[in-house]
Design a protein that fits this description.
The chain is 38% helix and 13% strand. The protein is of the alpha/beta class. The longest helix has 24 residues.
């Protein structure tokens, strides 16, 4: 696979590389701009010390090609013709102007799958419009649903380059489907991934509510944006840390376990609604939440489950509440810092933190591991990100 280096396409290339694809990263002279994105190792700005670049380019090999040069373009075409896949996020029209776009290679490489990842697609009225991760999140819709109950505060951008990640996931899914289609039909194809469109269809109920009912969802603290506000689920625990109490009990087993937890903590005397938990435990099926507004008993039982979880959270340290909920099959969450997430025993047991050797520095660094796990397909970071032009001789047979 050939990847033309960019901040927008790097995550898609990383996902494929860490899953085993041989990804050759093509950078311009001087390196891709993402090598200059902080933070840097030791706070020393250097294109070889960008932690941003390190994270997004694991398991790839790297070369340098100046695509403005005719000889370099010929080398790129030769690499693409021998590849299964090309991933690029160049400005629409640039590669066509250079004579090295999909249509230029289609005849000589009929099995080639070409993934183009751009803010607004390769054509259309907005195709040449400039965009960033922030503007895409705002324009595509997710930012509207992200924030707090206090609407005097503006929407909040989701952290971690979510626009580029969303587009990257769509690029990977599209690439895999196109490769399967190629294996069946024998021909490759161009897949035009529009990041704005990808974001717009991943707004949960936001786009759907507007298109169907012309209703606007409202952002809420720590829970899904909805047209009608829901009750808070984020609680301050006994140690001053926050948890999200998740979905209140709905099944007889869940009500029974919450009642047992309340009793074990010696809180029955402080919770007069405990009898409602017992009623929930005696029901013969999962609670139908569509009846909450019209059935007083369902409403009372459901409300008691919510309040019981709030009470338990208020008397326990955050991690103890989180762990106790998980042990009882109750879906809750704890509000972590990134550092705490990397140290969580569950994540550690699943192998999420991964130590990656950096031989040139004589040490290893801890990286986030697989974003998902499959039963049969292996995943691993096979190597740290390439140094600029590190595999030039190996791939092109020269240092030029």
């Amino acid at each position: 696979m050939i990847e033309l280096a960019s901040e927008r396409g790097a995550y898609a290339g990383k996902l494929l590389a860490d899953m085993g694809a041989d990804v050759v990263l093509v950078e311009p002279p001087g390196g891709d701009a993402s090598r200059r994105i902080p933070p840097f190792l030791g706070d020393a700005p250097d294109p070889e010390r960008s932690l941003f670049f390190w994270h997004y380019n694991t398991s790839k090999r790297g070369i340098v090609l100046d695509l403005e040069d005719a000889a370099a373009r010929a080398r790129f075409c030769a690499l693409a013709q021998a590849a299964d896949l090309v991933l690029e996020s160049e400005a629409p029209g640039r590669l066509a102007a250079l004579g090295i776009d999909f249509e230029d290679l289609r005849a000589s490489a009929p099995r080639l799958v070409w993934i183009s990842l751009t803010p607004f697609g390769r054509s259309g009225p907005r195709s040449r419009e400039a965009a960033t991760d922030l503007t895409l999140l705002a324009g595509g819709g997710p930012a509207w649903s992200c924030g707090y109950d206090d609407h005097s505060l503006p929407p909040v951008r989701g952290g971690g380059n979510q626009a580029h990640h969303t587009g990257g996931h769509f690029a990977v899914m599209s690439a895999l489907v196109a490769l399967l289609a190629r294996d069946v039909g024998g021909r490759g194809q161009l897949v035009d991934v529009n990041v704005h469109a990808a974001l717009n269809v991943t707004t949960e109920a936001g786009s759907y509510e507007w298109l169907v009912a012309r209703a606007t969802v409202q952002r809420q603290t720590g829970r899904h944006a909805t047209v009608q506000p829901t009750l808070p689920t984020q609680i301050c625990c006994a140690d001053g840390r926050y948890v999200t109490t998740g979905i209140p009990p709905r099944t007889p087993r869940e009500f029974r376990r919450v009642h047992e937890w309340i009793e074990a903590l010696g809180l029955l005397s402080e919770f007069p609604e405990a009898f409602l938990l017992e009623l929930g435990a005696e029901r013969d099926r999962i609670m139908d939440l569509s009846k909450v507004a019209e059935d007083a008993e369902v409403q009372a039982i459901f409300g008691a489950g919510r309040e019981a979880m709030n009470l338990i959270a208020s008397v326990l340290p955050a991690y103890e509440f989180f762990q106790g909920s998980q042990q009882r099959g109750l879906p809750t969450g704890i509000v972590y810092s990134p550092e705490e997430a990397m140290q969580d025993p569950h994540f550690v047991a699943r192998g999420f933190p991964v130590d990656v050797p950096h031989p040139e520095l004589g040490r290893s660094f801890r990286y986030p591991g697989a974003p998902y796990r499959f039963q049969a397909t292996p995943w691993r970071i096979r190597a740290r990100a390439p140094r600029l032009g590190e595999h030039q001789q190996e791939i092109l047979g020269s240092d030029a």
